[in-house]
């Protein structure tokens, strides 16, 4: 934190990690899952978890998903995963 990452950015990713951890525990009974298991259904399930279980507003949910998308895109660009579930192929 400081020169490259401001506190608000750190906080956004910190709380994303907390929410994902809660979601993994509730849905999968695990503390974490491999990146390769993130797919479209996972994203939808996480969105519904935030809406129904956590009671978040749509703007909050959108911010969480934007941050998840950034992580997934980074993983795809680094070839840690081989497809991006946020990209819709028609």
From TrEMBL:
SUPFAM superfamilies named among the record's database cross-references: DNA breaking-rejoining enzymes (SSF56349)
One Pfam family of this chain: Phage_int_SAM_5
Keywords tagged on the record: DNA-binding
Residue ranges the record marks as coiled coil: none
Keyword match Lyase: no
Domain called Phage integrase SAM-like: residue spans: 5-86
Lyase as UniProt keyword: no
InterPro entries: DNA_brk_join_enz, Integrase_recombinase_N, SAM-like_dom
GO molecular function, one term: DNA binding
Protein name: Phage integrase SAM-like domain-containing protein
Organism expressing this protein natively: Chryseobacterium flavum
